[in-house]
C-alpha cells in the first residue's frame, strides 16, 4: 500500500469511528488517537522528509487536508454532543429553561454616603469645591496649627487615638484625625484665597461605644476665605443649607460657642422637626437640635498659612454626619450604620 492509499484508509477508519461516538470521554480518546502527537497522522507528517521528492508534495498536501478535515469533524461532533445532552435534559424534565434565573444582587450606597452626596450637592451649588484629606494625621494639623497647643484643655474634649507618640517633636506625632478641621490648614497651605471647600470624611475618637457614640464616624467641614467675608456670609450660607436640607420652614438658631481656631465661634441648631419646637424626647425637651459648630477663621490660623488676616477673612463650620440620617429617619442607635446588617441597610 502506498502512502496515499494509507491516508484514504486512515480517513475511512477515523470518520467511521467518530460517527459512533456518543460521549465526551470517548471523543477525547478519539482525538488523542487520530490527532495526538503520537497519532498515525502526526508520525506521517514528521516523516515526510524520508519520501522521494515527487511523493513528498502529494502526500504532504493530502496529510494536511486530512488533518484539517478531522479537526473540523471533531468540533462538529463536540457541538452535536453538547446539544444532544441539553436536549435530553429538557426531554427528561431535568432542566426547565422557562424557569426564571437567579436574581442578580444589586448594591446601593450606604446611607451615610447618600447623605454626604446630598450635602456635597447643596454646597457645590453654592460654589464650594469638594476635597478630601488623610485620616492618619500629624499632631501639627489636627491640633497645633488650629491653635490647640500641647497643654490646651481643648485636647481633652477630643479623646485621641495615637499612632505614634514617642517622637520628641510634638509636630511629628501621628494620630487618627479627631475632626476634619486639619484639612483647613492643609488646603490653605496649598491654595490661596478666594477659596471655598467642603471636606467630608471619617474621623476617630477614643470613646466607649454606645447608642450615640462610636469610635469612627463622619464629619463634613466647610471653609470659605476671601476679601470681606463676614459673619453674615456664614449665617446666610448655613441658613440656606438648613432650608435646602431640612426643609423650607426650618428655624435656625445661632449661639455663642468656643473652638480655638475660630473667633467668634458659634453653634447652630435647627428647630426640632418632630415637636415643631415645643420640646420632645428627641430634642431633649428643648425644641432645638444642635447640628454643627462654626465661626470666623481665627487670624492666627490664617497667619500660620501665610494668608494676611488684614486683607482676608473667612468662615468655617464642621458637622457630624451620622446624626443627620438618625434625626431624619428616627434611627435610635448609631451602631446600626456599621453592623453590616442588610436588613437595616436595604431600607435606604
Ligand atoms: N472641628 C470641630 C469639632 O469637631 C467643629 C468645627 C469646625 C467648629 C469648624 C468650628 C469650625 O467639634
Question: What do you see in this structure?
Answer:
By secondary structure, the protein is of the alpha+beta class. It has 2 domains: 3-91; 111-133 and 193-345, BirA Bifunctional Protein, domain 2. It has helices at residues 3-20, 24-35, 40-46, 53-91, 111-124, 139-142, 182-190, 231-246, 299-304, 323-329, 342-345; strands at 129-130, 136-138, 162-164, 174-176, 195-204, 216-227, 252-257, 262-271, 288-297, 312-320. The strands form 2 sheets. A 7-stranded mixed sheet has the order 1-5-6-10-9-8-7, sandwiched between helices. A 3-stranded antiparallel sheet has the order 2-4-3. Helix 1 (3-20) runs parallel beside helix 4 (53-91) and helix 2 (24-35) runs antiparallel to helix 4. The protein starts with a helix and ends with a helix. The model has no long low-confidence stretch (mean pLDDT 91). Phenylalanine is lined by residues 179, 181, 221, 259, 262, 293-295, 316-318.
Structure, briefly:
The chain is of the alpha+beta class. The protein has helices at 3-20, 24-35, 40-46, 53-91, 111-124, 139-142, 182-190, 231-246, 299-304, 323-329, 342-345, and strands spanning 129-130, 136-138, 162-164, 174-176, 195-204, 216-227, 252-257, 262-271, 288-297, 312-320.
